Amino acid sequence: MIPPAKPRVVCISQARMGSTRLPGKVLLSVAGKPLLAHQVERLRRATLVDEVVVATSDGAADDAIADLCRRLGVAVFRGSELDVLDRFCRAALAHRADVVVRVTGDCPLIDPGLIDQLLALFLAADPPLDHASVDIGHYPRGLDAEVMTMAALRSAWTEATAPFEREHVTPFIYRRPDRFRLGALPAPSGPAPVEMGAQRWCVDTVEDFQLVRRLLEELLPAKPRFTWTDCLEVLRRHPDWALLNRDVVQKSLT
C-alpha cells in the first residue's frame, strides 16, 4: 500500500507596521537585520514546513514589509488590514495549503524546533486534530504557534462574525471544542522550564524590544541557530534582563 502523501504545510506570519504601542516594530533592526528578517530565517529552518509566507495589509504603510519580503525572497500576501481572518485564509488558499501554521511577526525568537514538534504531533494524531497550539502556560510568550487544517480555517473564514474572531483568526476554532478537535504541545521536560512561562519574548513595547535585542545580540554571534532553551539559559545567567519587560501587560484578546 502506498502511504498517503504528506499534506502541504504553509507557515503564515502576520505582520504589519501599525501597532498602538510600538509602531513599525517588525522592522526594528537588531544585529544588522529587521526583526521580521530574523523570524523568517528561523521559520525557514522548520523541516516540516513546505513554504513560509508573510501576510500583511494592502495599506501603503505596509509597502515596507512587502519590499523587505521581496529582498528576502519570501512570499508575501496582501489583504485586509482589519479583517485579519480574511487576509490569513486568502493567503493560505493562494499558497495551496492543506495544513496552516500561524505565527505573528513580532516573535523573532520563534523556535523552528518547537514548530516541528507541534506539526509532528498534529500530523500523527489519531483521531485527527483540527487545531493545536504551543501552550504559553508552559512556554514563554513569543514562542506562540498554532496549526490547523484548511477545513477548520475555511469554517472560521465563512462563519465567524464577531469582530474579535475576524481580527484574531483562530478564536472561532479554539473556542468551540464541541465542534473542533483541539490539541496542544505537551509541557517541556527537563529542569523546570515552566518557570519561564510568564516571560515575554515577543515585541509589543519598547521594553520587550530591549529584552529581545539583548537575547539576539548575545546569542547570534556564537550560536546563530540557537533554540528557545538557549534563550532560557541566557536569562538564567542574566536574571536582571527578565525584569526589563516584567511589568508589560499583554493586551486582551477582546
UniProtKB/TrEMBL annotation:
Listed InterPro entries: Cytidylyl_trans, Nucleotide-diphossugar_trans
SUPFAM superfamilies in UniProt: Nucleotide-diphospho-sugar transferases
Segments forming a coiled coil: none
PANTHER family: 3-DEOXY-MANNO-OCTULOSONATE CYTIDYLYLTRANSFERASE (PTHR42866), SPORE COAT POLYSACCHARIDE BIOSYNTHESIS PROTEIN SPSF (PTHR42866:SF1)
GO CC terms, sorted: cytosol
Protein name: Spore coat polysaccharide biosynthesis protein SpsF
Lineage of the organism: Bacteria, Pseudomonadati, Pseudomonadota, Alphaproteobacteria, Rhodospirillales
Origin superkingdom: Bacteria
Gene3D superfamilies: Spore Coat Polysaccharide Biosynthesis Protein SpsA, Chain A
Pfam families reported for this sequence: CTP_transf_3
